[in-house]
Amino acid sequence: MTTDGSRSGPEESGGADPLLSVRDLTKQFGGLTAVEKLSFDVYDQEILGFIGPNGAGKSTTFDCVFGNYTPTSGTVRFRGEDVTGLPAYKMRQKGMARTFQTFRPLDDRDVVSNVGLSLVSDRLLTLRGLFGRTEEAAIEVCRRVGLEDDLYKMPEELSHAGMIRLEIARAIATPPELLLVDEPFAGLSDGEIERLSELFLDLRDEGVTFIVVDHNMRGLLDLIDRAIVINFGELIAEGSPAAVMADETVQEAYLGGEEI
Amino acid sequence: MPGTDEPSGMITQVLVNALLLSALYALVAIGFTMIFGIVDILNLAHGAAIILGGFSAFYAVQLGLGIWVGGLAAILVPALFSLLLYWILVKPVQHKNTMVIITTLIVLTMIEEAFRIVEGTGSHVLPSLVAGGTTIGGVSIQYNRAVLFVASWLAIGGLFIFINRTWLGQAIQGVSMSTRGSVLVGVDHEKVVLATFGIAGGLAGWAGLFMGISQGVTWDMGLEPLLIAFAIVVIGGMGSIKGSVVGAHIIGVIETVTTTYVDARLTGVSALVIMMIIIVAMPQGLYGQPGEVG
Amino acid sequence: MADSSLVGEVRARLSWAGLKRAPIRYYLAAVFLVGLALGPTLGGMGTLLMLQWTTAFFFVMFVLSWDFVAGYTGQVSFGHTLFFTAGGYTTAALNLYLGVDPLLGILAGTVVAAVSGLFFALPALRLGGHYLALFTLLPPLILVRIFVIFSDYTGGSGGLSNPEPLLEAGDFAANAQANYYLAFALLVGIFALLWTITRSDTGRILTAIRESTDAVQSSGFNPAKYKVYSMVLSAVIGGLAGAVFVHTPVGSASPSQLLDLSLMLEILLASIIGGFGTITGALVGGLFIFWGLDWLEGVEYVLPVIQTPVGEIATLLFFGVLLLLVYFLEEGILPWSYRQGNRVLSLIRGGQRPVATDGGAPDGAGDAEGVASHEDSMDQGTAGSDAGRDSQ
Question: Residue C376 and residue B99: Cβ atoms within 8 Å?
Fold first, then answer.
């Protein structure tokens, strides 16, 4: 965040081609429709907030977009290419990375090795990694996210904030074009939230596009350029953070006691 | 061999043989599936329970106590063995699948080896419970096998009643479905698991007794029935008692048909081949729970 | 290109300064290796001992083949004997019935083994835990029975008679020596290959698959590719070893040497005792099992109560000992001894020696041995929908 309140934001939306384009995404589990004909775009180097109360279908949406689930119908385009239904590892190879709300580290190895996995070459037979350079690169990434004091800890020994940092480190070790962070601020102190936000802004300046998923908009207000709100699997509002917060449908969705 | 002049009589004989065989298999399979259902492990030492059952009866007879005492020993000794097996060796590692398989495999091998050393490789036939036989409608039935058949079904029926009507039986079902849930309603997990192992051991031991009477006890009598029990449990669904009974009959019929009409040496092969196919095509079996495959 | 600096790295490691930094166990290993290499020629190793070592080498190759796939990727099969049999029986049959040259036969055997590797690998993509264990347990059992039924072609339980040897070197003693070096070279080659794979980047991916295929996917790697690769490679190694084995004086294409369940059990134990999921552990465990059993069988001491010499009940005793070892040394001998060794070293050096999280010595060489202190690999497979199971 710069002192005059302005940010290096994206091109005026509507002009450039979107980086990610989702059309009529639908996901059904048996009789239950979790996501219903959802359409939205994400533009280069913007920070998009994706908000909705718990159970609104946010995680399911992105599980479909990022290849963890196969959508029932709809299309996902990344840089113009149709990537609907591709498995998660192919999505990652194309430059789409994500963190998970339920952390999924590798419990059998320390922090550095966890990050190291994201850096290794995709080769069946290689000499790389025999001499410790993968480890050096991983340490660098850890420093970037603020894990320099936790390098050799096991994931189970990390604090909550540490786990979030680890998730992010693993996702950015090989810089992605699009990064989804799923509920990154949950359980963090204000200071930690600010540090993390600054990291995101730095990464954005380096070319990463962000989607930040959360159920609580207040923490995101200063970070995001644009917001999309969904409920019951459907899009209910889209626009600048201020506009979205003032939207009546949005306020109603949160009447159940959730804070906006 | 095929080619008799009374085809319908032959078929009936085959069916009767199949039924008798199925009952035997069911005894082994039920215990195995109960253990799997309750603690989620493959207890390879179940085969050892069969061997112990057979030899306990044998020793009882050798000591002059008679075959009926032998029958009792054939239930009690393997039941105790199973209990101890769980208590000492399995419980500490029960969450590590590979370890349990290896541990129980070693125990099975050790017991086989011990009997091989002590008793040699020959087989010892046990005296019949009831001598003689009869012929009903062109089909010959030995009284002995009839007794075994009835006794097996008594055991299976008794087990059904036990599972569905007694508190402990319900507890076993409960733990099978949800350990945490059962503990929350006051079920003593330990006791239930021990009871399961004991019952399984007793059933397997009884199967050993029956095998001893019809074929004789030998040091390696445990492996083949164990493998067939695998097949049955996979077909019927891991953890399902009803599935084991149904699966036992399917396998029993296929076994008997194969050995009678195709080649007697193929005993066991058809069961194993079917098991492989089922594991890939329909791993949860007939009555198992889908989604547990991994 | 990055590789030219790899050459530089190798040079640096092999320089005087680099060698001085290498951990003690590398030196021990080197001494051991040199000892084995020189034994027959300079060390005065007798012919019988050479033949025994040759057999031991093949056994270790079998264990390596298993440990590589089971210990690293967590695809635990109980039917690796299928691969050895595929290799050994194919080449023996080709040689005996069609007069195929041993070298070609070995190649054919390896290919057949690779196909059987696919036969396990593809179901392994969907099955896990118990189901994979059962699925892989069966083919060898079925094969044994089929071999016995068709014993006219397969030699039954005695196996096929000996095919042509791969090497002919004159008299019996010279022959034994030639085959010793053949087996030794093959073992060193296989070990070097697997060591490279597991210590390199590929190894990190393989062990990650064991932990969480989700994590592997989100890092951009295709888990299926690596799972199939490791299983097929394991099969190729096992098949190659089995194929060469039958062309040596110590091996033949028979169930007892290639197919029996007891062989599978010995391999399991060797790997576990040596240290599951460490290539070096497979080597140590394999030799331990082989020589331990051999030694025990020769003991003539007569046990008091049961009046039997130890040798006769060797197998029984041995399994009993292994049971205890498996029980008490859960992680295996090698990791356990690393920690003991480190403890001793730190006492000697005054307590300042750091210990890396994996229990091995930190030497900056990316020594990712994947020590089996992790929760069991097979737990990945079972209970996909944890309906009520409290598997935290």
Answer: yes
